[in-house]
Every structure is written in structure tokens, then in C-alpha cells.
Write a structure and sequence with these properties.
Layout: H1 2-9, H2 14-65, E1 71-76, E2 88-96, E3 103-112, E4 118-127
Antiparallel strand pairs: 1-2, 2-3, 3-4
Length: about 150
């Protein structure tokens, strides 16, 4: 009789095993959730990096145009990069400065993500190397710089 009592006490009870399995299940679920969140962060970072690269490329093209046409333009990257960047769209808005006729504000936005809700935007001010007729600044003429010692 002593021997059978000792054998029963040497093992785990069903309740202890069930509690251990439940604890392992909760820990595994938490780790899988953390892994999923980490993957989502990596995907968002990749998309943001791609959007920044694409926006910089569009802004560089506007700089090469020197003084792009005013207005709002939209498109995708199918012509520039066939088969790639299907989830990305672009917008370019060029606005003439009301104060300076030789300055334009160029805003380039790249939209991406589900429903194109995410946006990366770059803004630059570009100067026309040959201002329109009737402006007060002649081509090649710079605005007067303060002389040393003068207050401005």
C-alpha cells in the first residue's frame, strides 16, 4: 500500500498539466502577435522609404525642368517603372508665388498604402532663371547685398 501511494504522488496531476499548457499557449500567442506587429512595422518602413525615393525622383525632374508648368498633375509610376510600384501614385502641384514672379512653389506627394491613405510630401521653391516680362529683376541681376558694417 505504501508503494502505490508513492507512485501516485510522483507524477503531475491533470490540472497541473492543463495549467502549464494554457500558460504556454498564452505565451505563444503573445510572441506571434509581437512577430506580426514587427512585420507590419518593417512593411511600413519599406513603403515609406520607397515613397521618399519616388518623391525625390519626381522633385529632381521638376528641378531639371527648371520652371515647371503651374497647376495640379497626377499619375502613377507605370510609365517610369513598368510592373513596379503599383501601390503608389503621385501628385505634383506647382503654384506661382504671389509676391515674387520668378519663384514657384513645387509640392510633390506620393500616395501609398491601403486606399492610398498614406502620403509622403516634399516642398521646394524653384526660381525661374529668366523671369517673366515686366518683373522688377532683370536677368543676371542679383538683389543688392548689404555691405560689411552696414545694418540691415
Amino acid at each position: 500500500m505504501k508503494r502505490s501511494l508513492h507512485a501516485v504522488r510522483a507524477g503531475f496531476t491533470l490540472l497541473e498539466v492543463m495549467i502549464a499548457i494554457a500558460f504556454i499557449g498564452v505565451a505563444a500567442t503573445a510572441l506571434l502577435s509581437l512577430h506580426h506587429t514587427n512585420l507590419q512595422s518593417v512593411i511600413k518602413a519599406q513603403n515609406l522609404t520607397r515613397a521618399a525615393m519616388l518623391a525625390q525622383g519626381l522633385m529632381s525632374q521638376a528641378e531639371l525642368d527648371r520652371f515647371p508648368q503651374t497647376g495640379m498633375f497626377r499619375g502613377d509610376f507605370a510609365q517610369l517603372y513598368p510592373g513596379e510600384y503599383r501601390n503608389f501614385r503621385w501628385e505634383r502641384e506647382v503654384v506661382q508665388s504671389p509676391l515674387f514672379p520668378d519663384i514657384e512653389k513645387v509640392r510633390v506627394s506620393v500616395l501609398y498604402g491601403p486606399g492610398f491613405r498614406d502620403r509622403f510630401t516634399l516642398v521646394e521653391f524653384l526660381r525661374n532663371p529668366s523671369p517673366p516680362e515686366g518683373s522688377s529683376i532683370a536677368p543676371g541681376q542679383a538683389s543688392p547685398a548689404p555691405t560689411p558694417g552696414s545694418q540691415g
